[in-house]
Design brief:
- With 266 residues, this protein is an alpha+beta fold.
- It folds into two domains: 204 residues, Bira Bifunctional Protein, Domain 2 (BirA Bifunctional Protein, domain 2, 2-Layer Sandwich), CATH 3.30.930.10; 46 residues, SH3 type barrels.
- Helix content is 27%, strand content 30%.
- The chain is built from seven helices and twelve strands.
- The strands form two sheets. The chain has a seven-stranded mixed sheet with strand order 1-2-3-7-6-5-4, with helices on both faces. It has a five-stranded antiparallel sheet with strand order 11-10-9-8-12, with no helix packed on it.
- Helix 3 crosses helix 6 and helix 3 crosses helix 7.
- The chain is globular and about 55 Å long.
Length: 266
C-alpha cells in the first residue's frame, strides 16, 4: 500500500469510494460520534449504504456505552443498513464486520485474530472494535447502524491509561503508515460480500468461517455479564453468534452478551 495516512482531498476520495454497497459518504473532520450521526440520518430517511466517516470522534462509543478513544490516524465509520430480516438475526452482523476487518488486515501481511464477539486483535492487543445499534420496525429492523473503529496509524503511546499497553495499531505492527483509502475500499469489498451472503441465508457458513479466525474457542474464559461472572471453556458459537461455554461446574451456558476475558491473560 502507498504510504499515505489520510487523503489531502477527502472530496475526491469520497467520489472514488462511493460504489457497490457504499452509496453515499458523509464526511466530518470531527464529530461527536459517527454512530450517533448515522442514527440521526437513518431516522430521517437516509438510504442503505450511507456511510458516516470522520477523522476524529469526540465521544466515540464502544459496547456498553464505553468511550472509544478516537485520535487522528484511526478509521472511524458507521454504515446504515436496512435489511429485511427478523430483528433477532442482526446479532450475526457485528461478527461479520469483525471478519471483514480481520481479512482486510491480513492483506497487509499481518495475521489477526478475533476475540468473541467482535474484537479484532494482533498479538493479544486490540486493534479494532465494532458497535451495532438498531431500531425495530413492525417485522424487521427499521435500520441497523454498524460502527467500526480501526487503529490504522494511531500512536498508541498517546492513548490514556492502560490502553497504551492493551491496544496496538497497524502502523505500529508494520512499522510504516497504512493507506487510509485503500484500507477502507478493501474492507467494504469483504463486508459487501459477507452482507450479501448473509441476506441469502448463509449465516451458518459465515459463522463457521468466523470461528476459524477466532482465538476464543477452546480457551478458558471469564465472562462478565450485567448480572454475574461466569467461568468456563468456550466451545462454540451458535447460529445467532452467541457463545457456548461449559462452566467450571460442568453446566452448558449460552452467553448472549458480555465482556469476554481469557483466564490465561488475567
Amino acid at each position: 500500500m502507498r504510504e499515505r495516512v489520510f487523503p489531502s482531498d477527502p472530496g475526491a476520495m469520497i467520489q472514488r469510494l462511493q460504489r457497490g454497497l457504499v452509496k453515499k459518504i458523509v464526511f466530518f473532520d470531527e464529530v461527536s460520534s459517527t454512530n450517533a450521526e448515522a442514527k440521526y440520518l437513518a431516522q430521517n430517511g437516509a438510504m442503505e449504504g450511507t456511510v458516516v466517516l470522520a477523522k476524529t470522534q469526540l465521544h466515540g462509543r464502544g459496547r456498553y456505552d464505553r468511550h472509544w478513544e478516537s485520535p487522528k490516524g484511526g478509521l472511524y465509520l458507521s454504515v446504515i443498513l436496512r435489511p429485511r430480516i427478523p430483528l433477532e438475526t442482526t446479532t450475526v452482523l457485528p461478527l461479520l464486520v469483525s471478519l471483514a476487518v480481520a481479512k482486510t488486515i491480513q492483506t497487509l501481511g499481518i495475521q489477526p485474530t478475533i476475540k468473541w464477539p467482535n474484537d479484532v486483535r494482533i498479538k493479544q492487543k486490540k486493534v479494532s472494535g465494532i458497535l451495532l445499534e438498531s431500531e425495530a420496525g413492525p417485522t424487521s429492523p427499521s435500520y441497523v447502524v454498524l460502527g467500526v473503529g480501526v487503529n490504522l496509524n494511531v500512536d498508541v503511546t498517546t492513548l490514556p491509561g492502560d490502553l497504551s499497553l492493551s491496544a496496538t495499531s497497524l502502523s505500529k505492527e508494520l512499522k510504516k503508515p497504512v493507506d487510509y483509502e485503500q484500507f477502507f475500499g478493501i474492507f467494504f469489498l469483504f463486508f459487501e460480500e459477507y452482507y450479501a451472503r448473509f441476506l441469502h441465508g448463509e449465516s451458518e457458513m459465515l459463522l463457521r468461517e468466523w470461528s476459524l479466525w477466532s482465538d476464543t474457542l477452546g480457551k478458558q474464559v471469564e465472562i462478565q455479564t450485567t448480572k454475574e461472572t461466569i467461568r468456563g471453556k468456550a466451545i462454540s458459537i451458535d447460529s445467532s453468534g452467541f457463545l457456548q461455554i461449559v462452566t467450571d461446574h460442568d453446566v452448558h451456558r449460552t452467553i448472549t452478551s458480555g465482556d469476554c476475558r481469557y483466564v490465561e491473560e488475567l
